[in-house]
């Protein structure tokens, strides 16, 4: 039978766009995240849009352009500490609130993002 993907269930491209916009507007002002991101979020927003589309079952937009995501490897050049994992997830949760993404689809998405975020951790806590 036909099974819908999370991507379709939440409203597809438009919802992913809104989520990405809301998310990076929070990352851009978060004291723990801001320092490791570039000033200009244009490129990272586009990449995340492509990635999240395929991550939630939409078309493989990211891989079509960049090949295998290898996300952990692509994050190795940035110090992803436990604090930054929590910060990333808190921005994501706040972005989901902001765009009105609720209920079981939101919970399913957040669980997957949580696992992936923890998998990105590559550096112990930095000293002040
Ligand atoms: C790229 C930080 C988790 C997906 C990046 C960049 C940084 C970063 C600094 C590079 C920005 C640049 O281009 O200069 C973090 C931190 C995380 C985290 C601190 C904490 C857990 C995640 C998660 C995902 C993700 C959970 C996916 C669900 C991506 C993607 C890119 C990216 C797709 C672009 C990769 C590319 O260059 O093609 N991230 N990230 N990140 N991140 Fe994360």
Roughly how many Å apart are the termini? 55 Å
The CATH superfamily appears as Globins
**Low-pLDDT regions:** none
Broad structural category? mainly alpha
Q: Quickly give the CATH architecture.
A: Orthogonal Bundle
CATH topology: Globin-like
Tally of helical runs? 7
Compute the number of structural domains: 1
Output the radius of gyration.
15 Å
Give the overall pLDDT as a whole number: 96
Task: Describe the protein's architecture and organization.
- By secondary structure, the protein is an all-alpha fold.
- The chain contains 7 helices and no strands.
- It has one domain (6-120): Globin-like, CATH 1.10.490.
- Helix 2 (12-27) packs across helix 6 and helix 6 (82-99) runs antiparallel to helix 7 (103-120).
- 63% of the residues lie in helices and 0% in strands.
- The mean pLDDT is 96.
- The chain is globular, with a radius of gyration of 15 Å.
- Residues 33, 36-38, 44, 47-48, 51, 55, 66, 71, 74-75, 78, 80, 84-85, 88, 113, 116-117, 120 line the site of protoporphyrin IX containing FE.
């Amino acid at each position: 039978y036909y099974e819908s993907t999370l991507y379709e269930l939440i409203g597809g491209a438009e919802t992913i766009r809104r989520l990405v916009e809301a998310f990076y507007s929070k990352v851009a002002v978060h004291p723990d995240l801001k320092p490791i991101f570039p000033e200009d979020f244009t490129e990272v927003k586009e990449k995340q849009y492509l990635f999240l589309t395929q991550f939630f079952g939409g078309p493989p937009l990211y891989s079509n352009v960049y090949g295998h995501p290898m996300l952990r490897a692509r994050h190795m050049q940035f110090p992803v500490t436990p604090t930054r994992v929590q910060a990333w997830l808190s921005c994501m949760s706040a972005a989901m609130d902001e765009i009105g993404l609720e209920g079981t689809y939101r919970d399913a998405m957040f669980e997957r993002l949580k696992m992936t975020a923890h998998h990105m951790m590559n550096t112990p806590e930095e000293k002040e």
